[in-house]
Amino acid sequence: MCEPEQVDYRSRCSGVENYREPLGGKWPPNIGATFPKGTIAMNRISLIVASLPLLFGGGCGPAGESAAPPVIAVDAARYLLPAEPADPQHVIAARTASQDQDAVVVVGRIGGSRNPWVQGRAAFSIVDCSLKACSDIPGDKCPVPWDYCCALDKLPTATALVKIVDEQGQLLRTDARQLLDLAELQTVVVRGTAQRDDAGNLTVLASRIFVRK
Question: What is the value of pTM for the model shown?
Fold first, then answer.
């Protein structure tokens, strides 16, 4: 280790080859003459890069979490219906007839986009059963048939968002696929409360769900 003594450092400090005089009353000596060319610039860059996590709150510790929201363990059984409810409304009919805060039972197929899921939350979109997914059309080789790209003109009035909520009406903080073993194009019957917006969109705050096999 190099220590600030009044000696010639050429014999003690590795990498310091251009030093020409013993240390006098100054510390540090002439840096430009002491360290190899480029060392100071590299040290400054390293310091700036190392400081970025502190400036922007990054990192993996408690003070700078940037990961996805935590997944909460939920008992799936309490959100599954043992039998299919009678006379569910199809999505198009429910969008037409239901009012905000109505109790509803709606049937539909999971899909409507390339990714119909809400990451880390128990929510997904469903499509009216009258629409054909690409996989329902003979010869169609669409790799993501649940996006209903063959019926794009009908999708705006034939979709609904399903949010599985707890007793307090709060959206469950767990992935619906993991919670209920769901997959794209499955048919589900959801029981819950209608939530309407000014644009006519329908969200079902679902308390229970039946999954058709």
Answer: 0.67
